[in-house]
Prior knowledge:
470 residues, alpha/beta, Alkaline Phosphatase, subunit A, 2 domains, seven-stranded mixed sheet, two-stranded antiparallel sheet, elongated
Amino acid sequence: MRKMRFDLSRRRLLQSLGLGAAAGPFIPLLNASAQTAQRPKRLILLFTPDGAPAKDYSTTVDWKPTGTETDFQFSPLHTPLDPFKSKIVVPWGLTLTAGGAGEQHAYGMAGLWSGTTLPEPNNGYSFDGGNGHLTGWGAAPTIDQIIAQAYGASMPYQKAPDDPNPETRYRSIALGVQCGSPNSVTRMCYTGVNAPITPEVSPKAAYDRYFMGVTPSGMTPTEDPAVTRARAEKHAVVDLLKKDLGRIRTRVGSADYQKIDAHLAGVMSMERRIMPPPTTPTTTGCTIPASPTKLTSNNANYPMEITQMMDIATHILACDVTRVLTLQISRGFSGITHTWLGQTSPHHTMSHDGVDRRTELTAIDNWYAQQVAYLLGKLDAVNEGSGTLLDNTLIVWGRELGNTSHNMGRAPFIMAGKAGGALRTGRFLNFDKQEHAKLLVSVAQLMGMSSLNSVGNRVMNSGPLSGLVG
């Protein structure tokens, strides 16, 4: 093993010396930026299934708040959010910027966070998008991934995705609850064309993966033995490189000193970076929840799985494991039967069984609002000094439909959190019949991407929602 590493380091040195690229492997290490701010912006995209309750395509429960911009009352769908009204914005009346192959559930899922057209089957990808209407995968990155890949002073990330000294362990994390097998109706986020993101749907697996090696505030870090071994191996390589450079420096002319010294500076920087982590945590609000009980994923356990995932999501953000997170609860064509509400038919079935189900569907939406209120309460309970985790986060709650009868207009969106002060909350804003692509642009701008003016391929250069940002 030692001989292999020595040969590898020698080969790299010999390739670089005299070729004008001496600093190649190491100089990027010198460009690492300063430590990230302790309380960065975070983003949560939250999904629950179906749109506002409807009797038919044209007859929908009016979920529009009453009152004025700053003195308003929620509709029955959203009354559980009342304790957090001062930290909420209701962008009422938006039309989903979505379309393409399949039925509305399918292209609504593909367009919800991307504003793009869902393609017909292509490249071997073919899914039932509703009643046999076939689709392919989505055709563009979603706004969570656009934001996760961006970087700058006022964004969640200040460093590029390929920076050798990343700010968080994960650039983004996707969580879900009973999202279903992968197809165009069950996946809402994409890294690019034909590249859906499959969320982690097991709370226990999410806990084990994302909290491995995380040190709560006020505790001395412990480290996985495999990480310790990997660090020791990296140190061995660095030691060999330093010895090589030291020997070679004595054998070259002065003209090559600069190349050798550049190498050495890079190696020293690498050595500093692979030192054991500091004993002082960088995130003051970081605590780790108890490991969740492993549940059988079924209808009866659905509420508990949601609670577990929301707890995990809160602690992931508080511990700076990531700064961009998505939480998909159920899926298009949701088959959940809300027995705890006294119901005996699945959610989607009730939307189309020929009976006026507005009362039952309103109860479902109100129940989902209770779950969202639970998440907001958990985020708001994390003290981050000048504000709470909720204050430093933007939550956007959306659906794949405008109403349960497949109308895409007046889709129920709720925004919560202050995005680190970028969003002025406690407001109800009327954006009736405006494209929700503008909301996606606004989300990007709230996350610091001030020059972005267009999202998706259905409404080009839409700009943001006037009056929402700023």
